[in-house]
Amino acid sequence: MKFLSFKGGIHPPESKKATESLSIETARDPQKVIIPLHQHIGAPCQPVVKVKDHVKVGQMVGEAQGFVSAPIHSSVSGEVKEVAVRAIGGGREAVCVVIESDGKFEVHESVVSPGDYKLMESSEITKVIQEAGIVGMGGATFPTHVKLSPPAEKPIDTVIINGAECEPYLTADHRLMIESSGEIVEGLLIIMKAVGAEKGYIAIENNKPDAITTMLQAVSETPGIQVVSLQTKYPQGAEKQLIDACTGRQVPSGGLPMDSGVVVNNIGTAFQIAHSFRTGMPLVDRITTVTGTCISEPKNLRVRIGTSVADLIEQCGGYKETPGKLILGGPMMGIAQEMDEIPVGKGTSGILAFNENEAIIPDPVNCIRCGKCIDVCPIHLMPLMISENALKERMDEAEKYHAMDCIECGSCSYICPSKRPLVHSIRVAKSSIMAKKRQEKK
Amino acid sequence: MDQKLIVSSSPHIRDESSVQKVMSDVVIALLPATIGAVYFFRTRALILILIAVITAVMAEAVMQKLRKQPVTISDMSAVVTGLLIALNITAASAWWIPMIGSAFAIVVVKQLFGGLGKNFMNPALAARILLTLSWTGRMTEWITPGADAVSTATPLSFVKGQMMVPGNAPSLFDSFVGNIGGCMGETSALLLLLGGLYLIYRNVIAIRIPLIYIGTVAALTLIYSGFNFHYMAYHVVSGGLMIGAIFMATDYASSPVTSEGRIIFAFGCGLLTTVIRLFGGFNEGVGFSILLMNVATPLIERYTVPAIYGEVKKQHA
């Protein structure tokens, strides 16, 4: 079997052994959930419930504002205790609906299957996905219905389901592929119908041979769908690299996957779409991998949105040594947290606890111009040049070196023998360039 | 939870490589040639090597103290420079030759331009050129390997101005293993190649630069001599070509960072080396060639910025 890939990339230690063969467990029922009303890219939701309201599972608690937004639903049944600003992780705060569970998990009346997607128009399918509050569950949390609504002049012929899971440590998608392959294939078919694509790919890194076998069996009788084995390499699961590997197409600089006729969705998203079509249940839970050196018993957990991260860590036996760093997401692109009293959101693909030693930030020394950052950059940028210019506040120069094309995968910082904060300085350059552009527009 | 968590931007894991590891790899790669130098030229080689390395490291520490910067001699980069300087001088050198060379390389070429990674020329090569131009006689006083250490000539001096290898020249085999006169570390192509293989295996250098550099010299001397393979091989294993192509043209700081740029750089080095050797006033041209290409590096880099993923071709109206 030929393994597809892209040019560049790195091979960090996979660190998946602890959880890759553990079945998904359902997390303990939370006593209380804190559901942020901003769990997606786009405008925050407006609360539609108030304190003392009784809510049920699947009931909408936050209404989407505008097209690029996604509604938010309750993950438990019980009483609304608070609608207030709370910390939601990553140093951010948002209005949250705090619900005390009554432990009954009564399902709301609005939760009914929307019917057979095969009989639906594409716009009807998209509407179901929109109302189910589905967003990109790999971590980006971009509203899925927006992705599935390309303008008429940009026809989509290919849908890729991203099962690369190239971030070290994470195994949530891996387990989902093994345990729910049928739903994932169905999710893919629904997306293909929604965008009118004829070709579907399920792309998986070759470090998950069991997932590849399971998915191959699941698609054996479905024409138009192909399971693709990818070389295990980070960032194989980045949209642009995945499209390149599967189709040989490149997304034009500054463009979106739809500009090359492709839509990419995460495994978790595909599963959730099928689940919402079968049961009518909106996105109220997700799979997340709780792992890292500090976790006593790493697990893959099915978690209700709004459950406290601290609770989940406790269910995994708690911290076995003093944690130095807590990360939501993977170690390459995840976000370090200042505390564990934060809720799990729609994009929480993993919870990693590193020990104090792993948390040490290395001291940078001079760039030795080894060029490794150029070799590994999946976009073929010159990270050292962008970074050098950014640090000297020459943002125009940084832009000339295509700072805006950086996908912030962090491969350059990972490989740098001088431990320079490459991707960090490029992020600074990007936001500075964008701020300048916004000002020029005014 | 009351303990403090560290918050920093991603990525949260780093490769285990470090400048120290990279530089240590270069030192390890130079060990065969270093040991070879001591084997061929005995105690005098050992003393010169120690003087060069100690001077380089001390010069770095003193300069960093003066510049009020953290002292980074543990990164091993000064050791590499000192070692290269020692391997680039004749075993007949006076003790102060490597001392001046190392001090010049570290103080002027490296630290005055900003330290590690900021030197636009290879410090060891710049030192070699300085020494050769200042003390030409002493720097070209070649001796035979072994305890006798009598005066001799380098293999390249035999082929200078010739289109074939003269009968009285040292044998190709002696030149390959290093049983000849020349700079301490240049003489054995074999030992340098061993080091080069190690660097490639450790992913410190790409095979491209030495391969293209040496290949260019080989191709051009082959054509020049009317396809005399013996002549070509003689040029390839003699003089500073191996140490230059493997250890100096691959210097990160003074060669292009782009892969296309590195190809142009290596080809330029090979072309200039051959032209100087065949038509120039010197027997050897490796040092000058690499320094000239060092100077051209920013220009080469500017024209070899890689095309990015999904680059939209500029529309010409």
Walk me through the structure.
The complex is a heterodimer of chains A (442) and B (317). Chain A has 442 residues and is α/β, with parallel strands linked by helices. Among the domains of chain A are: 112-279, NADH-ubiquinone oxidoreductase 51kDa subunit (Rossmann fold); 372-441, no CATH class. In chain A, 29% of the residues lie in helices and 21% in strands. Chain A contains 14 helices and 17 strands. Chain A has a 6-stranded mixed sheet with strand order 1-14-13-17-15-16, sandwiched between helices. In chain A, strand 5 and strand 6 (72-73) form a beta hairpin. In chain A, helix 4 packs parallel to helix 6 (209-219), helix 5 (181-195) packs across helix 8 and helix 11 crosses helix 14 (422-441). The mean pLDDT of chain A is 94. With 317 residues, chain B is mainly alpha-helical. The termini of chain B are far apart. Chain B has a single domain (19-301), classed as Ammonium transporter fold. In chain B, 59% of the residues lie in helices and 0% in strands. In chain B, helix 2 runs parallel beside helix 4 and helix 9 runs antiparallel to helix 10. The interface between A and B is large, with 69 and 40 residues.
Could you provide a short overview of the structure?
The complex is a heterodimer of chains A (442) and B (317). Chain A has 442 residues and is of the alpha/beta class.
What are the salient characteristics of this protein?
heterodimer; A: 442 residues; Rossmann fold; six-stranded mixed sheet; 17 strands; B: 317 residues; Ammonium transporter fold; 59% helix; translocase (chain A); Soluble_ligand-bd (chain A); cell membrane (chain A); 4 iron, 4 sulfur cluster binding (chain A); Nuo51_FMN-bd_sf (chain A)
